[in-house]
Design goal:
The longest helix is centred in the middle third of the chain and has 22 residues. The chain has two domains: 346 residues, Aminopeptidase (3-Layer(aba) Sandwich), CATH 3.40.630.10; 130 residues, no CATH class. A hairpin with a 2-residue loop joins β4 and β5. It has 488 residues and is α/β, with parallel strands linked by helices. α2 crosses α10. Bound molecules: zinc ion (ZN). Zinc ion binds next to loops. The site of zinc ion has 3 residues, from loops.
Length: 488
Amino acid sequence: MYRTIAQLDAAIDTLVDTRPDLCIRVPLNNSIEGRPINALRLRAGGGENRRGILIVGGMHARELMNPDAIIELAFDLAQAYTSETGLSYGGAEWSVLDVRIMMETLDIWMLPCANPDGRHHVMKTGGDWNWRMNRRDNPGTTCEGVDPNRNCDFMWRVIGPTTVCNPCSNTQGFVGRLPFSEPESQNIHLLCDAHRIDVFVDVHSFSEFVLFPWGHAPTQTTQPLPNFTSLLMGFCRPLDPPGHQEFMPPTDQLKYQTVATRVADAIRAVRGRNYVLKTIYQVYNGTTTGTTSDYVYSRHIANPALRKTFAFAFETGPNTGDVRSSFQPADPEPIKLDTKAGLVALIQQSVCAIEFIGETLQAGTVQPLRDARDELLVPTEKGRGWIELVTSVQSELLGMVLTDKALTRRAMSLLLRVQKLSVARGKATVSAGDIKDGIEFLESLKSRATRPEVREAISIINRHLKKAAGQTVEAILKKLAKSNPPTL
Ligand SMILES: [Zn+2]
């Protein structure tokens, strides 16, 4: 029913041996007890500096379902890509083209079982079904284990309901001797340092949640300072000051809400389960520190030279009212389908059509567009509605562009022009020729689109484009930020 460590290792071997074109093994630090820990990279085709998503499971030992779901997802993606069948989990479906775009534009990193010693301790004969941590032998005590999801270098040793300095606490939330003292948590740090990771998810159980930062304090979007970098940490004391609320830029907040909503929508489509969106702090209604998700998202704030990674956590499966059957249900199959659907939705959200065309095909940076969007559209609800309209159809549009060389060339030249206009967004005006090129391009996409929502979105965009001649990008976006986006 649940794979042993040997079976998980064998599954990775099979995938790497039979599909070397799609899948490579990425060896990481061994566990405390010397077990190998392996990540996988899934991708089709070549290209450098692709956007990346990292999916982690099994950080907590007793949460047995998720490593199985993640390794099965790796097989499903490889199979769907090769056989050109698309993917479906219950009522959640992705087309052949969706799968192709995910596999051909992203690097999909997977660490199915981050804490193999813990899993072994749970599953072995005479083992402890309720074990959560790794198997660190804590010196000077008879109590074993560090919680690898409280051991990361983020507000480390700031204590809370499930974050403790006592290795013998029955919460099993011991933070460890030093930040990243444990190979199981350090592997996350290594993967983020070594690879481009734009989106991260740590898959846990249970409660049916989609989670995002922050965990140490409630989130607010108005006061950038003081932030976590100036707070005390490392003293085994509660959050100080106790009323601190951590800043998140409104653009990031919007992104988290939008992406998590799509994840929950995909999970609901499988068989109707309702996953709830929360911050990590809200889960325990208290300070939760040293988690992988907060660490991964905070990296670019602690060190502005690093890339920003949007970091999520899932809590898969319902609370059955019984702890053991919540962590280890007799039939995990339906929950694994929910989990895989949520993960595919997250992978799909990690694709950025405009960035892919702009950067991967070397048509230059998309930063001016991103800046214009963030400054002019994101601040208003109506503006955010327009962003939502475009992102809801971008995956399908990218598919059409990539499968047609002539369309790819036109997309690149249009993007270059839009970039120029965005750089001089308050000065350069859009010409009648620009409008004509844009509308013709979008009409040719419209004639290829299968979903009515995509055709409708293009019609709406074209109606607005027709009125844009002679205006600057700034004027166009300002107008959009004040006009109601249509709902599809
Ligand atoms: Zn967990």
